[in-house]
């Protein structure tokens, strides 16, 4: 009798170790929390911001970022306090907030930003009003760069309250560009970074630098709003430099409070006494002279003064031949000559209007013996020459009379031991530009205005503000036909809701199945 083998029995189940599972789950939760905390910490301290806006509207210009890391900011005794009192409903709120936060980030904590909504934070608004004596009836930014405290404001003899020199106020309307069209004032642009940087420099320095304009040597219109001189004045204001006209005649010396001299389209020559005053100023340490020349109107004694320092304005006109036609709009390339042009070096530029050429004696031994160093800043592009008989018939390059080699449109001159770090800050500086028409608002180019602003800051020994500056952001219109507007409305009102309902129905049906 056969016996069937016994059926195998399953081993008894192991008892469930609840303590072990609980401990493992707890450890997983702890490790996951630690990883998340570590990732958040790394993301908060090591991150990269990417500006994906069309015009990089939220990226600060190189001049601004360079200034925010300069000694003027990094060595400031106390953090610079910014109070942004803006309503959230303001059309400028989001843009100004984003830009202000960029200033804070690039200053590495040297700017302390506080954002206040006057409508939502009434108590804090009253504190700001009491502290600074400012009625917050408009959106504004307060910059407080005081280092030793002191009164917020003082009273003059007429009883008017004057804010501390290191406190500046920016009203929201100052950040926009307005134009009048059809009897209405419309916003056509935004230059917030220009204004914020200018006011920041002014708050730190306490007052604007002063550059005197020798008005009696020029015949340039100073009253018209769109005149080149007014354009120069506005450009300098954004650099915290005030342009003030004076008459050289009768002066025994340049005013001691002047940080620089501007010779703009000089037409009338200097007397021996006036030239002696100019030379006396130039021979002082840290003197600064900006010379903007108009071809055909260069006074002889001024020309001799410049020539003695290695830069000679030629009696010509920079032209080229294009399709058998004379082109007097000069094109040039920025050189690598001076530190303040490093952001422009190699870039092309256009100087519209009349431009003469400059002879620059770089490296001349007699000049080096006198510690004078002239350097060309803008060199004429290939194909241009200096025409000495401009306006005549059959104009063409004549190697016997015209100039084609070493053709410069702008140059700098330094006097002093520029190579010695101990005395480099005591050098005298001069910039010569052989064109004034580039100041005309209708002929302006961004690179030329940046170059002018950088030249002035270099003259004022503020190299951190030299380079490519902020760009004014414009407004854009999208022209749409009536049929296109109707189609967009149908998509928004019918097709998108219908798509969402259909997707929801499909998901609900799949879950039921």
Briefly say what this structure is.
The protein has helices at 18-45, 62-68, 71-74, 93-106, 122-132, 192-205, 228-237, 272-282, 300-307, 365-369, 446-459, 482-512; strands at 80-85, 111-116, 140-144, 153-155, 161-163, 167-171, 176-181, 184-190, 209-214, 241-246, 260-264, 288-292, 311-313, 317-322, 325-327, 330-334, 348-351, 358-360, 372-380, 384-387, 408-415, 428-433, 473-474.
Describe this protein's structure:
This protein is of the alpha+beta class and 513 residues long. Helix content is 31%, strand content 23%. The mean pLDDT is 85. It has two domains: 112 residues, Glutaredoxin (3-Layer(aba) Sandwich), CATH 3.40.30; 265 residues, 3-Layer(aba) Sandwich (Rossmann fold).
Keywords:
513 residues; alpha+beta; Glutaredoxin; Rossmann fold; 2 domains; 9-stranded mixed β-sheet; 23 strands
């Amino acid at each position: 009798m056969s016996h069937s083998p016994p059926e195998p029995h399953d081993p008894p189940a192991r008892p469930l170790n609840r303590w072990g599972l609980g401990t493992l789950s707890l450890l997983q939760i702890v490790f996951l929390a630690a990883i998340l905390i570590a990732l958040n910490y790394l993301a908060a301290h090591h991150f990269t911001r990417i500006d994906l806006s069309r015009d990089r509207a939220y990226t600060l210009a190189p001049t601004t970022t360079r200034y925010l890391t300069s000694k003027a900011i990094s060595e400031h005794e106390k953090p610079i306090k910014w109070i942004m009192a803006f309503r959230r409903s303001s059309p400028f709120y989001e843009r100004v907030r984003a830009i202000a936060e960029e200033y804070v980030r690039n200053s590495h904590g040297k700017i302390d930003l506080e954002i206040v909504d006057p409508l939502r934070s009434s108590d804090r608004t009253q504190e700001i009003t009491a502290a600074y004596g400012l009625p917050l009836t408009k959106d504004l930014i307060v910059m407080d760069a005081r280092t030793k405290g002191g009164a917020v404001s003082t009273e003059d003899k007429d009883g008017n309250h004057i804010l501390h020199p290191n406190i500046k106020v920016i009203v929201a309307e100052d950040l926009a560009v307005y134009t009048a069209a059809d009897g209405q004032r419309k916003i056509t642009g935004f230059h917030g970074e220009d204004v914020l940087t200018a006011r920041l420099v002014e708050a730190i320095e306490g007052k604007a630098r002063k550059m005197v304009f020798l008005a009696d040597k020029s015949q340039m219109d100073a009253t018209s709003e769109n005149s080149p001189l007014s354009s120069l004045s506005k450009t300098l204001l954004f650099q915290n430099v005030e342009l003030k006209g004076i008459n050289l005649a009768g002066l025994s010396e340049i005013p001691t409070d002047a940080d620089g001299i501007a010779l703009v389209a000089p037409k009338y020559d200097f007397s021996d006494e006036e030239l002696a005053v100019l030379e006396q100023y130039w021979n002082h340490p840290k003197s600064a002279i900006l010379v903007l020349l108009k071809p055909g109107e260069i006074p002889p004694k001024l020309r001799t003064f410049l020539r003695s320092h290695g830069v000679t304005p030629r009696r010509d006109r920079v032209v080229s031949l294009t399709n058998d036609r004379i082109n007097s709009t000069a094109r040039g390339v920025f050189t690598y000559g001076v530190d303040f042009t490093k952001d422009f070096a190699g870039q092309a530029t256009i100087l519209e209007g009349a431009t003469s050429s400059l002879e620059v004696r770089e490296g001349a031994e007699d000049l080096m013996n006198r510690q004078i160093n002239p350097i060309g800043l803008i060199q004429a592009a290939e194909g241009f020459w200096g025409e000495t008989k401009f306006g005549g018939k059959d104009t063409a390059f004549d190697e016997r009379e015209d100039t084609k080699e070493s053709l410069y449109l702008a140059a700098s001159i330094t006097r002093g031991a520029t190579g010695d770090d101990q005395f480099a800050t005591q050098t005298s500086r001069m910039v010569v530009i052989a064109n004034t028409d580039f100041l005309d608002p209708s002929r302006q180019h961004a690179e030329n205005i940046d170059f002018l602003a950088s030249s002035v800051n270099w003259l004022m020994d503020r190299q951190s503000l030299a380079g490519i500056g902020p760009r004014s952001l414009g407004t854009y219109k999208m022209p749409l036909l009536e049929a296109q507007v109707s189609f967009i409305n149908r998509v928004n009102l019918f097709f998108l809701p219908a798509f969402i309902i259909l997707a929801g129905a499909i998901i609900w049906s799949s879950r039921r199945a």
